[in-house]
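user: can you give me the structure for this one chain? tokens are fine.
assistant: on it. calling the predictor now.
[tool input]
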Amino acid sequence: MSCIFCRIAAGEIPAEIVAKDEHAVAFLDIAPLADGHTVIVPRRHVATIEEMPADDARGLFQMVARLAGPVRRAVDGAGNTIGINDGAATGQTIPHVHVHIVPRRPDDGAGTVHTIFRGGPRRAVAEVGKEIRKAIG
């Protein structure tokens, strides 16, 4: 299995997991655009949304909906940018469907999911992961 997201979902690669169920796994991005930047992947390998079976899509987006509020609250965000790069032409660099939840603040900039944030210090990934898990309950 060479897909990094498949390997994270299978527990073969360590990650800061914040939630998981039979359909999807959510973990903190290792190069976060903002504190709390969470990536949600379906457990089944599929490159694009169009290829996803309906049950997998339902499971994936149920987790996105379930986590949006707790992720935002955990880092005191004002809102979230929730995005998917679907296909190589969009900038998708890992050919496994994944949804980004990026907590936002009014003064954080604008643009696509990968261009709206400036570099800078971030809280420790483990600290943010703990806060998200606490906010989920």
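assistant: here you go. The chain has one domain: 4-136. Helices lie at 4-9, 54-74, 125-136.
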